[in-house]
Amino acid sequence: MQLHAFDPQLFRHHAEIAIARLENHLADTSIRGLALTEPAGLLQTARNLMNSKSGDIAIGDDKKLGAILDLYIKTGIQVHSPGYMGRQFSGVVPLAGVVDFVSSIINQPSSFYEAAQLPSVAERIMAEELNRFIGWAPEQFAMITTSGGSLANLTAILAARNDKFPQCWSQGIGAVAGQPRPAIAVGDDAHYSVCRAAGILGIGEDQIVRLPLNHKKQICPQQARQTLADASARGLRVFCLIASAGTTSTGAFDPIDELADIAEEQDIWLHIDGAHGASLLVSDTLRHKLKGIERVDSLAWDAHKMLFVPAMCTLLFYKDKAKSFGAFRQNASYVFEKEPDIYTEYDSAEQNFECTKRPLIMNLWVLWTLYGPALFAEKIEYLCDLALHAYHIINAQEDFETVHRPECNILCFRYLPANLQASNYPDFQVAIRNRIRGDGKFFISKVDVDEAGALRIVMMNHQITTAHIEMLLQEIRIVGQQLLSGHTR
Ligand SMILES: Cc1ncc(COP(=O)(O)O)c(C=O)c1O
What we know:
Radius of gyration: 24 Å
Bound molecules: pyridoxal-5'-phosphate
Number of domains: 2
Oligomer: single chain
Distance between the termini: 51 Å
CATH class of the largest domain: Alpha Beta
CATH superfamily of the largest domain: Type I PLP-dependent aspartate aminotransferase-like (Major domain)
CATH topology of the largest domain: Aspartate Aminotransferase, domain 2
Shape: globular
Largest sheet: 7 strands, mixed
């Protein structure tokens, strides 16, 4: 047995090797995106790092550990660099990583109070702290943590289905045969996890009612009424309307207040997918984008996006605490108690899908405790302002067009030089994005908007300035012209 692997001093030694590297990584402010590596080559490099036969690892094989960590850091998207403008996961507040590291060593799965006492009370505290920005009655709402926004959306839609079709949990979806078929309504730009959740719940593609968007890519309430009426005429019973607070493509915010009117009138559960944009609630100047949030039934909010903690940490809120127990209705005598006591009332296992779960809240709670909401509000405001600056900079260029005015920190645009004949190069924007990624200086993303490719930037790093945006545009011009001239690498 290699029991030295458990040696506390060896642990400290290894941790110091990692920390020294991470300090250098964080201190490196160079502009870099991703060192994209050909997978077969990386596979070989990784294999070469492994022991050829078991048992030949020397105690404190620092060189090998160092090489693995270097490779891990080098091949990652460089989320702490100003060159990273591509995705919604963040360069984290380093302290959150320190807490995550502690969680990994003390290993306290957090669905049950007895296994995670501090995370369980921290969850209660963060629920109250964040609810200050939502505004529900303190005793009536509930919040649980889940591993990601996708799982939070699934859980909320399941709770909605069980609320509106209580017989389905015990009798299955077939129990509604002969009645209007269960359906959900989504904005046409909803994240794919929403429709995936519907599929898991036995709601087919034909039962997904797509609500048309206006020119700002928000659900249009007037058209939504008509579309819902048409769905009803087709024999569908829309039980859940899922709106976005920050769509993935363009960061658009659906009009929650107006949709809440419709939901109330038609007895529809209103769920907000705020995976990206719910964090704007902590900002006094941006909160208005979620006007009406206190009227919704449930809200998914990713802290690993705009609250800058490591993936994953999602907060799933319910206006009505009782309904948070509606998603899953089970007995399991090995963990669930028939009569709650002062301890088990802090358990969340009956409300969340996971049994063993990371103590997801700890990273966020510690940041909140040490820095307060201002840390998040200031950074979010800076990032949203930066996207607006980028919009003005890009609009001032003759060879670029913006696709929308940014509502938060996401902006889509196109490079359209005079010598481009779009019909000859339909995938021009995607080709630019891929070549930029390959060059390794900037990391940006792409998306189809109005069925045409566009470049997409997501501002997640407060070190990005307008100078970096100018540099990115210059890089796009160089790459774009290389592509048009047939320049290959
Ligand atoms: C609007 C929206 N909803 C849901 C998700 C999925 O969240 P997660 O990646 O945490 O599962 C995303 C992810 O980007 C998103 O942008």
